[in-house]
Amino acid sequence: MLVNGKWRKLPQSEDIIPLTSSKMNENEERSSLRFKCFIIIQMIFVWTGYTVMVRYSRSSTLKHLQYFPTTVVYLSEMIKMIIALFFVFQINSYNISEFTRYMRKEYFGKPKDLLKMAFPSIAYAIQNNLDFVALSNLNAGIYHVTTQLKVVTTALFMMIILGRRFSSIRWLAIFLLSGGVAVVEVSINERNVAEKNDENYVVGLGAVLLTCVTAGFGGVYFEHLLKDGSETPFWIRNLQMYSCGVVTAALGCILSEWNRIFTKGFFYGYNIVVIAIILFLSTGGIYISLVMKYLDNLCKSFASAVSIILVVMISYFILHDMQLNWIFIIGSITVCGAILLYSSVPE
């Protein structure tokens, strides 16, 4: 090429491609980071909204007029399954015949995969029942402190199942997060420490420990299935999970509150707030799946910690049904410090 009266050599294609590829990778990383931040922020928003709505609905309604929680869980599982079906339908360009063939091949044609997804679903069902046993035998303060061990059990299962390894600084951040959330929970429940004569602390603590194990296992195993490198599409995995969730939720309705549901009706106590709770719970489940796929369980734990702090702030400034104290401030600072510490170093 002639430049200023002199011939210059044109750059070769191999000199250009690495630069172009580097820029493309950089743009992809930025886009991926924005997407991950979006997921986390949305999940915090959904969890916060869900918790505030549940708190408001239970505190503003007389006990005998309240809805049945098992029906809310069942409907949320149904909605999640419908959402997953919609995205599978979208993948097939809204073509019914292609959708039918796709479902026959990927969903009904893989019963072993469906059976795999039953394990985390059963683990979550066991966890819900153990929560009831624990709360029946422990006061709220002890319960909330001890259940924060699930952050640690989650990290341990990530090491066992996913082969993850954490640096000593990240382990410190994990324990700080667990302790910080426990302190926040104590500040919330410190007034409700009255003991009951029929409490069995051994049974209660045993139930809590099993809850932490099942919660950690269920979450990490689900993450493992989403990241196992198989050709099973993401939304099919979710559909398998939510199908099992519908079954376990239906069993919960039958075993726990069937008589009351049969007497008063499935939708007893429902109003606009309950509908909002169902929608929050449904979308929260979808975002959890996205976090499992593109981030990990510990990110979910950190997001949950932020959500707890936001719930307390909303309860204090908007609902006016909670008081802040120095214990809450210490716990919140600890949680924020744990988040910064965890994100400041690689594994």
From TrEMBL:
InterPro entries: EmrE-like, Nuc_sug_transpt. One of its GO terms (molecular function) is pyrimidine nucleotide-sugar transmembrane transporter activity. One of its GO terms (cellular component) is Golgi membrane. Pfam families: Nuc_sug_transp (PF04142). It is a multi-pass membrane protein. Keywords: Membrane, Sugar transport, Transmembrane, Transmembrane helix, Transport. Coiled coil: none annotated. It comes from the Eukaryota. Its main location: membrane. The chain crosses the membrane at residues 33-52, 72-93, 141-162, 169-188, 200-222, 234-255, 267-290, 302-319, 325-345. NCBIfam families: nst. Belongs to the nucleotide-sugar transporter family. SLC35A subfamily. This is UDP-galactose transporter. It comes from Cercopithifilaria johnstoni.
